[in-house]
Specification:
The chain is built from twelve helices and 16 strands. The protein is an alpha/beta fold. It has a seven-stranded parallel sheet. Strands 3-2-1-15-16 form a five-stranded antiparallel sheet, sandwiched between helices. α1 crosses α3, α5 packs across α6 and α9 runs parallel beside α10. It binds 2-succinylbenzoate and magnesium ion. Magnesium ion binds next to loops.
Length: 378
């Protein structure tokens, strides 16, 4: 496909309610969308970076800089046989996986549309529906958390993940586990603990957790390898894993037994696909993580989740849990038994609501073969 233009837009969307993790609270999201036009077709991607560098090193603004200075200007006029060529073309940019993923995934959507295939099929995924879980932010009290869990279970969700941090952990998980003894339950600490906390973390062995996600340092595979033998909960790595090589190191060191794949965190669909295959070959289950995405990122997560290595319910849930109004049509919906039907239309399989995107746009920049790069601020 011949790339004609790249448009990056910053949109502002407000979450229905604040989402608290161990590294902070977010409600007003600043999301970058990428539109890649190739052979006359528009493909869409989302940059999943957060507003602050509390989860990983990237932010909305660092991604804007990388795209605007180092990727956008180079793409118009380029020919790619497949979106899977993107990573090697931009391998000279170190890190900045989420910025690159926004572009690469837009090219995947365009490629799938040009081929007349759903993105899931182009990637090689076979599932017709995917299993959904939810990630619940930190709450004031164990009681209010239990009420929230009950509501999500009533909606059909198949796995509940609780965000935890020191001081808001044991009593909260205990309350939920006592009320719901049988559910698939996990916790996510987003790097809030240290290896010195091993005894405290071992206390969660009482709760028969499906997994404990990223308890220790965001870049510290070694410390997780030290922790895993000391606790029964299987460790799941999120922040530590930026590519397949990191996953191989973590698996060989026994630093984890499960891996959360976020398509953005690993640089796009090409690497995510390789990573899930590598884990599958080694018997390590993976699942698809979320980054409070708009419908576009959510649609990409659905497509990735159809690959065979994704054997556990992911953090991919209904649009209406996040937004009063999403930017895709139809919105992402979850069935009463906690699944999402994989769309069969070409590409991401959801229409982008351009009218709504335009209304939400705070700034945009276009790179094209016809015009010089132009910046517009709404
Ligand atoms: O660690 O999985 C995480 C949200 C923002 C940053 C990091 C994480 C999360 C979530 C939310 O858990 C998942 C979602 O519902 O999109
Ligand atoms: Mg996580």
């Amino acid at each position: 496909m011949q790339i004609e233009s790249i448009v990056v837009r910053e949109i502002h969307m407000r979450l229905k309610s604040p989402f608290e993790t161990s590294f902070g609270t977010v409600q007003n999201r600043r999301i970058l969308l990428v539109e890649a036009v190739a052979d006359g077709v528009s493909g869409w991607g989302e940059v999943t970076a957060s507003e602050t560098p509390g989860y990983n090193a990237e932010t909305t603004d660092t991604a804007w800089e990388i795209i605007s200075n180092f990727i956008g200007p180079l793409l118009p006029g380029k020919f790619l046989a497949s979106a899977s060529e993107f990573p090697q073309l931009f391998g000279h940019i170190r890190g900045h996986e989420m910025a690159k993923s926004g572009i690469e995934n837009a090219l995947w959507d365009a490629e799938a549309k040009l081929a007349g295939l759903p993105l899931s099929g182009l990637l090689g995924g076979g599932k017709q529906e995917i299993d959904c879980g939810v990630s619940l932010g930190i709450r004031e009290t164990p009681l209010s958390l239990v009420a929230r869990v009950e509501q999500e279970l009533r909606s059909g969700y198949r796995r509940i993940k609780l965000k935890i941090k020191p001081g808001k952990d044991y009593a909260f998980v205990k309350a939920v586990r006592s009320e719901f003894p049988k559910i698939l339950l996990s916790v996510d600490a987003n790097s809030a603990y240290r290896l010195d906390d091993a005894e405290h973390l071992a206390a969660f062995d009482d709760f028969d957790l499906l997994m404990m996600e990223q308890p220790l340092g965001w870049d510290d595979i070694y410390a997780h390898a030290k922790l895993q033998p000391l606790i029964k909960s299987p460790i799941c790595l999120d922040e530590c894993i930026h590519n397949t090589r990191h996953a191989l190191a973590a698996i060989e060191l026994n630093a984890c037994r499960i891996i959360n794949i976020k398509v953005g965190r690993v640089g796009g669909h090409t690497e995510a696909r390789l990573l899930q295959r590598t884990c599958k070959e080694r018997g390590v289950p993976v699942w698809c993580g979320g980054m409070l995405e708009s419908g576009i990122g959510r649609a990409h997560n659905i497509a990735a989740s159809t690959l065979p290595g994704f054997t556990l319910p992911g953090d991919v849930s209904a649009s209406s849990r996040y937004w009063d109004e999403d930017i895709i049509e139809p919105e992402v919906e979850v069935s009463p038994n906690g699944t999402i039907r994989v769309p069969t239309a070409p590409g991401i399989g959801f229409e982008v609501r351009l009218d709504r995107v335009e209304k939400l746009t705070a700034r945009s920049q276009t790179f094209s073969t016809k015009n010089q790069a132009s910046v517009l601020t709404a």
